[in-house]
Amino acid sequence: MADVSYNPIVLKVLETSYVTTEVKRFILEKPNDYTFIPGQSVNVSINLPDWKNAKRPFTFTSLPSNNYLELLIKIYEYKHGVTEKLESINADDELILHDVFGHLQYAGKGVFLAGGTGITPFIAICRDLAKQRKIAGNSLIYSTQYASDVILHNELKQLLGKNYLNTFTKENVVGFVEKRIDKDFLINNIQNFNQNFYVCGPQKFVTDINRFLLELGAESKSLVFED
After folding, report:
1. Would you say 90 and 24 are in contact if contact means Cβ atoms under 8 Å apart?
2. Disulfide: which of 13, 54, 170, 180 matches 145 by Cβ 3.0-4.6 Å?
3. Is the pTM of this model over 0.85?
């Protein structure tokens, strides 16, 4: 499925909650026949006079088969922008959904490498694979600054079991690894570079990981990421 140009759709927020101290879950009503592929994103704005044209991209974490839409959004208060305003948006408020886009879609078994909120497309993909009973043979390496930044840790652990690895860059947590995902980390934790690699996170994270993977023998056609 390619990018989809929908007319702007005003949707009611059904509920909100926090999954970490900075990441807020939004559950929205879902229109009939609204569709996307797990891993895709949508441009979102807030249905308030001064915010309707301020669009920002966020990734669906719900599945196309769900009767609701779910977005997990990190709130950046210091930026004084859309996400700060989203902190005040709750049930019965409205968001506007625009175009659906994204090519970070599942293409076969491999390794998911996520940095920070780059985990969100992989949440949808892993949920979808689990629903189809096709998650076996995939693994996830997830890097955050602190343990408290990890999004949906228990669910990801349940979905992937021993094939789920956390690494933290700014704290030492018993039972976990304190390290950046660098070339040595990949060598020590990935045995086969002849498979698919899905990479999502801050731009520097994606650029660095892709470079490391290519240096270690991965083929460019096996790297799946957003340009």
Report:
1. no
2. 170
3. yes
